[in-house]
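User: Please predict the structure of the protein below. I'd like the answer in structure-token form so I can feed it into my own downstream comparison script.

Assistant: Understood. Taking the following sequence of 328 residues as input:
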Amino acid sequence: MLNGIDLYRADLNLLVLFEAVVQEQHVGRAAARLNLTPSAVSHGLGRLRRLLNDPLFLKTPKGVVPTARAAQLAAPIAEVLARARSVIASAGPFDPSTSTRRFTIGAPDGASAVFLPRLVAELQRCGPGIDVGVRQLLPIAGETVHERAWRSAWSDLDARAVDLAVIPSDHIPLRFARHLLYEEDFVLVMRAGHPVGGKPGLGSYCEAQHLVVSLTGDPHGFVDELLAQKGRSRRVVLTVPNFMFALAVVAQSDLLCAVPRRFAAAHAGRFGLAAAEPPLPLGRFRIHLALPEVATMDEGLQWLVALLLRTGPPTAPEPSGHQTLRNG
């Protein structure tokens, strides 16, 4: 909007004045809103007109209307002011009981569905004015190098598209602070009374029909690689894009699906699903919180990280045979 040569002439208060006049469509009302005199507002508009080389507002019998150029500038100026207000607000002491900040957390759905219920309950208790947005993070499709699979998440953090990222990986670049949130592994979920029984063997497991969670629809997953190492294979008859959808489909079919253990413990009960240990180890992994090192100086983010670490995920039960999962 302003070039580098003219920026030193800019006054942030002129943008505040511009915003008020755009919203009020009247110089007198804008002046009253800003606790200024109408002549002070008119003088400020004159400075802004010279700076931006446009009349900006045209007089009408009922007030003023923005020019085409002013209408074009309204949204960018509002964004600049919103960012400035956010910076100033975050620079002050953070009090969760009175804060109205909005935090954005990036996470895969299998993780966000685990930590969000407890986080929301705690926010209602100690941060009633705080809002949270969740942005789904996904590994790069087709990326086989684990260190690079989540590079889009690092880009989101660098661009401040998210404040925190919840990542199922130990390979976190050094420019980010990390905190271990919890460890996870996989269980099988199936409808109650499924033909494979409570302790499926490798043979019955491979003979069953399977559902795989895959955003791209690729039916080949990490389980297939583990089976191939044993000279085995399975038939994947369906892929769905998220874990919650997978639970709904499994409940109405004879499909088997491998899901994170804590996710199953938290949500599979509402579908009346049973859980069983897989016939071969499907591996463990760790879930980390990651945020830019510079962001650790933000008191609000410090508080949110501490809250997530304190509330944590629900305890993951160890299925013993064919166990029906219950809510709780």
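That's the full token string. The two ends are 54 Å apart (CA to CA).
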